[in-house]
């Protein structure tokens, strides 16, 4: 079983979201894409578990 | 400069078969004296099975081609009498450096696991490998072993029958026909045998070209593997520099899809490219240049009645990860003992279908690995390039990203999980790496090593366990090798074969793969395991 959390779990969610937007500020489209890619890889490493990562990949496929 | 590949090694000689009134029947004919055909023939001759090898050429491989030989193939080649010569001549390396854009992002040390007779891998030109195999075949001939290599014998037509195969052969002195009980087709990626039998070869072509150059230089580059992603001297592409013996360096330059191959191959175009890479002041001489388009594909089945396919004729991979020749050697290692048992009437023909099952599994593993490497090295879409570059950028600062960098995963032997020849694992606490289906890992034993003691026949390996000295089932002998865990002071034997178990008994196949294991001897169960391992329970 995967441990993917799909209920609210982000501490100070509004602050996090603002940080995410701020991180992209002033970046070109290409720089933003590269930044996102690095971020995904860093977060994936934090999760580590194959099943959880797979569940996250699947969850992201579903739009609403 | 080394031009061994220009000297005829098995020159054409007229054979008695050419003057026979009716076609002569041979037990086994091998088409192709490439590395895989030669390995098959040597294995057969060592088991006293008469074999004729036909090759349309009379020289070793042109250019160096395969240069990286991994531990498991070296162990197999040691059993075939060529492994030690290869290691003596070959170059060993441990350090790899990865460059991205203009900078080195990281370097790694392979730190190979200790306690093996053979190194993790060596670099050696394919022509040396073939030369050693030909020398070994000659030595076997001198001992009176039934092996013959016929140069400039080109197979032109093949007729398949229920109990034999007929071959029409073209020579400088005209055509003749022979027959074979069994045919092993080792005639390379463009296999004429495959074509003549109308068989498929499906897979994926990578829309990319690579320039492969061997240069001779007196440079003081260290013995390391250097890989560049998107370097200034080959923008948007990749490059590889690898050392071989005799001051020869292998250079791979990715060229992209829309190129004129003939133009790119001309020295006046190659030399400036290499100068950009090596620097203007480095003196070098071109030994061999070639341009390749990579394919990853395999035949649906490696056995078609009395015709068995092995090596590149059966499967083709991209060179990243050095799996071509390495996996072909594992094909023949798997095939020959089975063929010998079937020919001697000690096993049913169905045993040969397990050659297909096990080596298709191996080929799929190799194709998967080499496809992934190729996808990393040559990203196929904008987003895959973005992700690839992100991995490379991160790898410079953060260790976690380095394992994701894929410039070729080096060939490791295949475990035949799920093979119909395996008995269920019955060794509680036994190590995962020696579960049924696994190739036996080597272990130091005093002055020697374990693997040479397991060669060519079925072995009952006992560790801190009692058992009879051997047994026989349906004419197949099994010999015991009795060891104590204390025989190896480095404790590798206990780590690799006992794990948490107190004792162990292993049934080991002639190709050094584990067929069955349990904690103690049990006659009925080991007889059943032997029957299973020889295809009698299929
Ligand atoms: C650039 C490059 C780099 C590579 N690097 C590596 C590496 O580092 N490590 C690795 O393991 N592999 C590597 N490989 C792959 C390796 O070279 C092949 O996997 C290997 O040569 C296959 O051996 P083979 O005996 O199956 O076929 P081949 O070597 O192709 O031999 C086939 C033989 O069949 C003969 N033949 C063909 N048709 C007929 C006929 N009609 N009648 C009689 N004879 C015939 C040919 O003359 C030839 O001698 C590389 C390949 C390339 C191209």
Secondary structure topology:
The complex is a heterodimer of chains A (about 60) and B (about 550).
Chain A: H1 13-24, H2 29-47, H3 50-61
Chain B: E1 24-31, H1 35-46, E2 51-54, E3 68-70, H2 71-79, H3 83-89, E4 95-100, E5 103-109, E6 121-123, H4 126-142, E7 147-150, E8 154-160, E9 165-171, E10 174-185, H5 192-196, E11 202-217, E12 225-229, E13 238-244, E14 248-254, H6 261-265, H7 267-278, E15 284-298, E16 303-304, E17 307-309, E18 315-316, H8 324-343, H9 351-377, H10 382-397, E19 444-445, E20 448-449, E21 458-463, E22 470-473, E23 476-483, H11 492-498, E24 504-508, E25 514-518, H12 523-533
Parallel strand pairs in B: 1-2, 1-10, 2-7, 4-12, 10-17, 21-23
Antiparallel strand pairs in B: 3-6, 4-5, 8-9, 9-10, 11-14, 11-15, 12-13, 13-14, 15-18, 16-17, 19-20, 21-24, 22-23, 24-25
Helix pairs in contact in B: 1-4, 1-8, 2-3, 2-8, 8-9
Bound molecules: flavin-adenine dinucleotide (FAD).
List the keywords.
heterodimer, A: 64 residues, B: 538 residues, Glutaredoxin, eight-stranded mixed beta sheet, 12 helices, 28% helix, binds flavin-adenine dinucleotide
Number of helices of chain A: 3
Q: Most extensive interface, residues per chain?
A: A-B, 8 and 12 residues
What portion of the residues of chain A fall into strands of 2 or more residues? under 5%
> Element order, helices and strands of chain A?
HHH
- What's the total helix number of chain B? 12
Envelope shape of chain B: globular
How far apart the termini of chain B lie comes to 54 Å
The CATH architecture term of the domain at 3-90 and 122-201 and 296-366 in chain B is 3-Layer(bba) Sandwich
Question: In terms of structural class, how would the helical and strand content of chain A be classed?
Answer: mainly alpha
Model regions low in confidence, pLDDT < 50 over at least 5 residues of chain A: none
């Amino acid at each position: 079983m995967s441990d993917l959390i799909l209920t609210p779990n982000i501490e100070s969610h509004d602050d996090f979201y603002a940080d995410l937007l701020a991180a992209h500020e002033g970046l070109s489209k290409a720089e933003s894409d590269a930044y996102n890619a690095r971020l995904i890889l860093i977060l994936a490493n934090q999760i580590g578990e194959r099943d959880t990562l797979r569940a996250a990949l699947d969850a992201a496929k579903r739009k609403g | 400069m080394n031009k061994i590949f220009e000297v005829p090694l098995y020159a054409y000689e007229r054979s008695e078969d050419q003057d026979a009134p009716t076609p002569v029947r041979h037990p086994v004919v091998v088409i192709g004296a490439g590395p895989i055909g030669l390995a098959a023939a040597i294995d057969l001759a060592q088991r006293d099975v008469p074999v004729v090898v036909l090759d349309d050429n009379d020289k070793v491989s042109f250019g160096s081609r395969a240069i990286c030989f991994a531990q498991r193939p070296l162990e197999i080649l040691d059993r075939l009498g060529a492994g030690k010569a290869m290691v003596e001549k070959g170059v060993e390396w441990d350090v790899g450096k990865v460059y991205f854009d203009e900078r080195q992002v990281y370097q790694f040390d392979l730190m190979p696991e200790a306690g093996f007779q053979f190194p993790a891998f060596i670099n050696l030109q394919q022509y040396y490998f073939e030369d050693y195999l030909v020398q070994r075949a000659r030595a076997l001939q001198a001992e009176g072993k039934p092996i013959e290599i016929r140069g400039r014998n080109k197979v032109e037509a093949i007729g398949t029958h229920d109990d034999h195969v007929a071959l029409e052969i073209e020579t400088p002195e005209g055509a003749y026909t022979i027959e074979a009980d069994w045919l092993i087709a080792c005639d390379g990626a463009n296999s004429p045998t495959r074509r003549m039998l109308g068989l498929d070869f499906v897979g994926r072509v990578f829309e990319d070209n690579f320039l492969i150059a061997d240069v001779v230089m007196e440079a003081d580059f260290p013995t390391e593997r250097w890989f560049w992603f998107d370097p200034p001297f080959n923008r948007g592409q990749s490059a590889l520099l690898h050392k071989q013996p005799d001051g020869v360096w292998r250079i791979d330059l990715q060229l992209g899809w829309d190129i004129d191959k003939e133009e790119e191959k001309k020295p006046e175009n190659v030399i400036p490219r290499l100068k950009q890479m090596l620097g203007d002041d480095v003196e070098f001489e071109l030994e061999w240049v070639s341009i390749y388009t990579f394919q990853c594909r395999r035949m649906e089945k490696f056995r078609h009645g009395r015709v068995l396919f092995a090596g590149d004729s059966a499967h083709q991979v991209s060179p990243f990860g050095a799996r071509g020749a390495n996996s072909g050697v594992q094909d023949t290692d798997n095939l020959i003992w089975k063929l010998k048992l079937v020919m001697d009437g000690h096993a049913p023909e169905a045993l040969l279908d397990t050659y297909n099952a096990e080596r298709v599994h191996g080929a799929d593993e190799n194709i998967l690995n080499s496809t992934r490497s190729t996808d990393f090295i040559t990203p196929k879409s904008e987003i895959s390039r973005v992700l690839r570059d992100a991995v490379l950028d991160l790898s410079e600062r953060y260790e976690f990203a380095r394992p994701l960098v894929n410039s070729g995963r080096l060939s490791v032997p295949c475990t035949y999980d799920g093979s119909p020849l395996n008995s269920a694992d019955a060794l509680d606490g036994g190590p995962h790496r020696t579960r049924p289906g696994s190739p036996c890992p080597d272990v130091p034993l005093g002055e020697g090593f374990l693997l040479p003691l397991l060669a060519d026949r079925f072995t009952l390996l006992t560790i801190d366990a009692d058992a009879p000295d051997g047994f026989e089932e349906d004419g197949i002998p099994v010999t015991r090798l009795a060891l104590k865990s204390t025989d190896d002071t480095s404790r590798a034997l206990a780590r690799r074969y006992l794990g948490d178990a107190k004792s162990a008994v292993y049934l080991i196949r002639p190709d050094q793969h584990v067929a069955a294991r349990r904690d103690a001897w049990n006659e009925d169960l080991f007889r059943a395991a032997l029957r299973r391992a020889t295809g009698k329970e299929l």
